[in-house]
Amino acid sequence: MDCGILTSKTVLLFLSLVFWAAGGVLAYVASYMMRSFDSFGSFLQDKQTLIPAAIIIGISVVMFIFGLVGCCATLRESTGGLSCFFLIIMLIFAAEVAALVFSFIYQGKVSQGLELSMNGTFAKYNGSNAESQAVDLLQAELKCCGIKNYTSWFTIPWYLTNKTIPSSCCINKTAQCPSSQVQPNLIYTEGCEGKLEKILHDVLTYGMLVVLGFAIIKFFGMLSVCVITCRSNSRRSGYQAIYA
Q: Where are the transmembrane segments (predicted)?
């Protein structure tokens, strides 16, 4: 068998297997992104930051089906099947590029709306409502206190009324923490905004790198389809088994 044909078929068969594996991986990445954003949804004003995750999970669904199409078309060297597979790869490649672009755009938007959203959520803190639960969870999980730092609480209605910071700011809950006398050595002093922003950026970056890796594989897959189609049309025999 022609070395170029054999190599291209091997690439496409490998790509078909990658479609199935990639479908599972991308579904996990998308669900991870959604869970991460959902955990801190109270602090995100722009819900469009979930668009990249929605695109990724859509891609993962069709990949399971297209992997089978690619495998059959490659083994049969079907011109129609390979053309269909090429179109499929190209569409998914375009969708992955779109996901990368959206991820890049919304990385900046996360930072823009985060401070305003956090100011609104922290201002509604009363110790028992939904916003309070979100703030307590955020501070306990990220080991932070306040928006910029623990002094951010000094201008928030909760502190002005109760003259104390929430217990979720305390490193360890003791008789001295929380108390009316704020002792920095007993509380988390770092602000939550910077830590949350870093987490959200890391999630988007992780998703972008995974999608970029699969996009590169798709690019070589399209090249392989072109090689097989061109070589097959130039041969006198229209069919040749892959293991011949």
A: 51-75, 82-106, 206-230
Mean per-residue pLDDT, 171-191 = 82
At 190, which helix (H) or strand (E)? none
DSSP code at position 78 = -
* CA-only gyration radius of the chain, Å: 26
Provide the pLDDT for residue 108: 67
pTM here? 0.61
Residue in 33, 84, 80, 78 with CA at minimum distance from that of residue 54? 33
Measured distance CA(158)–CA(183) in Å, rounded: 18
Residues 188, 143 contacting (CB under 8 angstroms): yes
Mean pLDDT rounded to a whole number for the chain:
78
User: Where are the alpha helices (H) located in 40-181, listed in sequence order?
Assistant: 51-76, 79-123, 130-142, 157-162
Residue 55, both tokens:
């695109």
Of these ranges, 31-40, 89-98, 102-111, the one predicted with the greatest mean pLDDT is: 89-98
Query: How much is the pLDDT for 239?
Result: 47
Return the H-helix or E-strand segment holding 210: helix 192-234
Joined tokens for residue 127: 């110790």
Core vs surface per residue 52-85: b (16+ CB within 10 A) or e = bbebbbebbeebeebbeebbebbbebbeebbebb
